[in-house]
C-alpha cells in the first residue's frame, strides 16, 4: 500500500467494543483508515453497525474467513469474545493481514505462549494488541513526570478499584460470555489487565506477587475480589485491590498513589475528567486535568497506522500484553497455592512511552483538553499521632 493512503480496514466483530470504543475513534481518522468490510456471526449486530457507521451493508460477511479472502483489506481489527480471539487472530495473519487484536492474549498461559509464537511465525505482519491504557494521556503524562524524577525514587504504590458489577443490558458486563467466562480469572483477566498495564507503565516490572481472592458476587462465575501485593524489580513495593461487588458500594476514589522519596503522584478521577496531582517535597502541588481524552483508543489507532504505513514499532506488542496477562495469572496461582509466586522480568526496558509520530509534545494532534494549575499547600507540617 502507498504510505499516505488510508489503511483498508476490516472489522471482525462489531459488538460493544467497536460501537463504544473503537468506532468513535475510527470515524475521526478518515486520513488513516477506511472500513472496507466487516464480519459478525450476528446479522442483527452487523446491521446495527452498518446503520450507525454508514458503511455499506453489502460489505458484510457472516463468516470472518470470507472477509479475510478480500483483496481490499490490508488490516483487520479483531474484537470478539476472548475464547475465540486466538483462532481468528491466527486466521488473519495466515491470510496476510496486519492485525489489531483486542486483549488479552488468550484464555490462559498456553494461549499466551501461542500468541507469542506469532512474532516468530509472521515477522512481516504488524501486530498490536489493544491495550489502550498504554496510550491514555493522563497515564503517559504521569509516566513522563516519573521519568523526569518528579517524585524521586518510587518506594510504594497503592492502587484501588472498587464498584458494583451486575449484568446490565447494553453494558460490557451484560454479555453472556462474561457472566460465565471460559477463561481463567474472569473479570480480573478481562478488565484487570488494564490496571496491570498501568502498574507496569508507571512502576516497572514485577518480580514477585502474593495474591488472595474472594468469590462474593453470584452474578459472575469468577472471583469478584483480588488483593495483590507486588514487589518490583526496582525494589519498590505495592498493593493492588480490585472489588467487583454484587451490592452497591459507597462512592470510591478508585485512584492510584505513587509514593517517592521526593514527592507523591496521584492518578484519579472518572473517565470524563482524569486528574494527575503531583505533591512535591516542599508542599507545593500541581494538578493536570484531562477531559475528553477517549481513554487512549485514538492514540492506539495512530500507533497501529504508523506501524503499517511507516514501519514504526508499536508499543502494544504481543509481549507487552502477555506480560500484563502473566501477572494476573500469577496472582491467581498465588491465591490457589497460598504462596508467593516469582516472575521473570518479561520485557527488556519495560513499557516504552508512546508519543505521536513527528510530535514534539505528548499530546500534539490528539483529542481532548489538558490544563494544569500550581498551588501552595496550606498545611505542610509532618503528621503525628
TrEMBL record:
Residues 7-122 form the Gfo/Idh/MocA-like oxidoreductase N-terminal domain. Residues 139-265 form the GFO/IDH/MocA-like oxidoreductase domain. Residues 362-385 are annotated as: Disordered. One of its GO terms (molecular function) is nucleotide binding. Pfam families: GFO_IDH_MocA, GFO_IDH_MocA_C3. Residues 367-378 have a biased composition (Basic and acidic residues). Gene3D superfamilies: Dihydrodipicolinate Reductase, domain 2, NAD(P)-binding Rossmann-like Domain. This is Putative dehydrogenase. It comes from Pseudonocardia hierapolitana.
